Amino acid sequence: MADQLQQVEKILPEDIARTFEAAVNVFQGKTEHMDDLLKNGGTLLRKASKNFTPTQLILGVATLAVVAIVVINRATED
After folding, report:
1. What does pTM read for this prediction?
2. Are 11 and 48 in contact (CB under 8 A)?
3. H helices of 1-78, where?
4. Tens place of pLDDT for every residue, the chain, 78 residues?
5. How many angstroms separate the Cα of 7 from the Cα of each of 4, 12, 26?
6. In angstroms, rounded to a whole number, what is the distance separating the alpha carbons of residues 20 and 16?
7. Does residue 58 contact residue 21 with C-beta atoms inside 8 Å?
């Protein structure tokens, strides 16, 4: 049972690919993918948080917030 729980929480290449794809779409101006970026980025961060120190976790959340602010700023300028 414990092995199954650890396997579920592993970061899969698909997690990274989905997050990257959503980020590229948003940076290309397709703001309808912003929800996907936040959802996939949050999922990736949640899975990675099991291995992060508290400092790394804070920096990861801050990075995600900065990206979201930049994207929203770009979307409102257009």
Report:
1. 0.58
2. yes
3. 2-8, 13-27, 34-48, 54-77
4. 455 445 447 888 898 899 889 888 888 888 888 899 889 988 887 888 777 788 988 888 888 789 888 878 887 876
5. 5, 10, 30
6. 6
7. no
